[in-house]
Write a structure and sequence with these properties.
The complex is a heterodimer. Chain A is α/β, with parallel strands linked by helices. Chain A has one domain: Aldolase class I (TIM Barrel, Alpha-Beta Barrel), CATH 3.20.20.70. In chain A, 36% of the residues lie in helices and 19% in strands. Chain A has helices spanning 29-37, 79-93, 109-120, 140-146, 148-160, 177-186, 226-239, 253-261, 272-276, 280-295; strands spanning 7-9, 12-14, 18-20, 42-44, 61-63, 68-70, 100-104, 126-130, 166-170, 191-194, 198-202, 204-205, 210-211, 217-221, 244-246, 266-269. In chain A, strand 3, helix 1 (29-37) and strand 4 (42-44) form a beta-alpha-beta unit. Chain B has two domains: 5-86, Translation factors (Elongation Factor Tu (Ef-tu), domain 3); 98-211, Rossmann fold (3-Layer(aba) Sandwich). Chain B is 22% helix and 32% strand. Chain B has seven helices and 18 strands. In chain B, the strands form four sheets. Chain B has a seven-stranded antiparallel β-sheet with strand order 4-3-7-1-2-6-5. In chain B, strands 11-10-9-8-12-13-16 form a seven-stranded mixed β-sheet, with helices on both faces. Classes of the chains: A alpha/beta, B alpha/beta. The interface between A and B is large, with 44 and 38 residues.
């Protein structure tokens, strides 16, 4: 019998554990539909704020070899447009059984609640709260993810404003990610997404002696950060009882399996869309299926957290 | 790895009052006509620019916004960065004559295609349209390739008076060769011209490839900023077959700004409107 990849995340059924990560391709419903058709088990929108943001001038995203570096600056068309995009995506993805995760962020704890309330009108299957983008000049966002007390307040504010299950996306750029994970779970988070990009990092053009990104520094993603993501996910899964969406440099079926072995419920794929194209979702699922069949697993639960036992 | 490489500008030519050509100290390996590079001005911005000639890398840029204005202020010897080539270029059909149609600075990537068509001994006609005679670019370069030229200007200061699309319609209906074997059409220029050409190709059963412009961030298919309905212009385009553009809601109507909001199309895509 063929291995069954279906997964349940905070009560939402996914046809497989791969999810398009936030910030990659999730700007329009047409492209999200295409990603779902390419085999993604879920799609996450680009992070959305109350008002439109242009982000930084280019270069905003570059491939430096072992990974990507980006400082897009949370550009997004604002909540009204994203509500429409999410509604359209929901309508077209429902027949495919692929859920839509709305990623949100705000400048203040209070506004996180406002964005959550507005975005809920679009009835996303899940909300992901981005408290961890490393590219914002204001100290706000970095503070949200770095301080367990503030991270918990944001979580509470969001939970009070929506009935949709809430994932909180954590930053690896903290002394103790487990402490933050415990704080947001205590505050009511239904699940955790980990990790956001690492850094920020800095790459120079050595001919002109200038940073290659307009914003100078940027979040590092891709294969270069994968081992760090695996360690963070393991530590979080050990400490909390909510589902974890594991993100960080996943480019192959073996990377997905590794994340599930340390306890992840679902696995985000972002930078690998660059390395392997949009078809990466179907290919990665095929690689996971091969692994399961080789080990005689019928369902993902049979090996979830096996490295932790 | 696709970090930008910074190289010196070796030559700068004025094409018109607002269009300049920059020859960089770089060679693009394996570039196809219609592909683009991301051109970086450190501290300013980075934009997709079609390749006019791959070796040495030659780019023809109109002054339309802050980025191109800053580029036009560059002097020979200044350093700029480039990465690429990116995207899907023109795919030359060797079984049909080629009809290349350019509006304004769209002539530049078609010059690269024309040199390739001539290498492949494909009979080639080029139609160039602009507002007035002194806005036409690359006329002498195409002539020096020995190519038949159709010129059109809005004010009739040279060639056909009116749109280049009308001029080629005349060419298609009056040229007896075209009734035997329809040419394949390759075009680059303002989107409303592309819309007219799309219609013309569909009505006359002419195979066509159109190069579409959108605001871009990454250039390699992950940011989603350049989405044209379900296509990514940076990877699935910038060159599309006319059939791919059938029934799209964005084509000829909307493009995205840097925020990702859809804006109505009326002018060249600069991405600077927030």
């Amino acid at each position: 019998m063929a291995a069954d990849l279906t997964t349940t995340l905070c009560g939402v059924r996914l046809p497989n554990p791969t999810i398009l990560s936030s910030g990659i391709l999730g700007l329009s419903h047409e492209i999200m539909v295409r990603v779902a058709q390419a085999g993604a088990g879920g799609v996450t929108t680009k992070s959305c704020s109350l008002k439109p943001r242009a982000g930084y001038p280019n270069p905003t995203i570059l491939d430096w070899g072992p990974g990507l570096i980006n400082a897009v600056g949370l550009s997004n068309p604002g909540i009204e447009v994203m509500v429409e995009e999410i509604q359209a995506a929901r309508e077209q993805l429902a027949p495919l059984g692929v859920p839509v995760i709305a990623s949100i962020f705000a400048d203040t704890i209070y506004d996180f609640g406002t964005v959550a309330r507005f975005i809920s009108e679009a009835e996303p299957d899940l909300i992901e709260v981005n408290i961890s983008c490393p590219n914002i000049n204001s100290h706000y966002l970095q503070m949200f993810a770095a301080d367990p007390y503030v991270a918990a307040q944001v979580t509470r504010r969001v939970k009070r404003n929506t009935d949709v299950p809430v994932l909180v996306k954590l930053s690896p750029n903290v002394t103790d990610i487990v402490e933050i994970a415990q704080a947001v779970v205590e505050a009511g988070a239904d699940g955790i997404t980990a990790i956001n990009t690492l850094g920020p990092g800095l790459i120079l053009d050595i001919e002109t002696c200038r940073p290659v990104l307009y914003h100078e520094t940027g979040g590092v993603s891709g294969p270069a950060i994968h081992p760090i993501a695996v360690r963070c996910v393991r530590d979080i899964c050990r400490a909390v009882d909510v589902p974890v969406v594991a993100v960080g440099g996943v480019t192959s079926g073996r990377d997905v399996v590794e994340m599930i072995l340390v306890g992840a419920t679902a696995v985000g794929i972002g930078s690998a869309v660059h390395y392997r194209g949009i078809e990466v979702f179907r290919e990665v699922c095929e690689e996971v299926r091969e692994y399961m069949e080789r080990h005689g697993y019928g369902r993902v639960e049979e090996f979830r957290g096996k490295a932790m036992r | 790895m696709t970090l930008p490489q910074t190289v010196r500008i070796n030559e700068i030519f004025d094409e018109t009052r607002t269009v300049r050509t920059f020859v960089l100290d770089a060679e693009v390996q394996k570039a196809e006509p219609g592909q683009f590079v991301m051109l970086w001005l450190p501290g300013v911005d980075e934009k997709p620019i079609s390749i006019a000639h791959p070796a040495p890398l030659t780019l023809t840029v109109a002054r339309v916004g802050p980025f191109s204005t800053a580029l036009h202020e560059c002097k020979v010897g200044d350093r700029v960065g480039w990465r690429g080539p990116y995207g899907r270029g023109f795919s030359l059909r060797k079984d049909r004559p080629a009809l290349l149609v350019a509006g304004g600075y769209g002539a530049a990537p078609l010059y690269f295609l024309a040199t390739y068509a001539i290498e492949c001994s494909v009979p080639t006609t080029v139609a160039l349209g602009a507002r007035r005679a002194d806005d036409l670019i690359y006329v002498d370069r195409f002539r020096s390739l020995g190519i038949e030229l159709i010129l059109a200007t809005d004010d009739g200061s040279v060639g056909h008076k009116g749109y280049v699309t009308d001029a080629i319609l005349q060419f298609l209906t009056s040229n007896p060769q075209c009734s035997n074997l329809q040419p394949a059409l390759y075009a680059c220029g303002p989107e409303l011209m592309l819309v007219a050409l799309h219609r013309l190709c569909r009505e006359h059963g002419i195979p066509g490839q159109l190069s579409v412009e959108r605001y871009m961030k990454c250039g390699f298919g992950i940011c989603g900023q350049c989405a044209l309905d379900g296509y990514l212009v940076c990877q699935d385009g910038p060159v599309f077959d006319v059939g791919q553009l059938d029934g799209l809601s964005d084509f000829g109507r909307t493009r995205r700004s840097a925020t990702g909001r859809r804006l109505p199309i009326q002018q060249p895509v600069t991405g600077n409107q927030r």
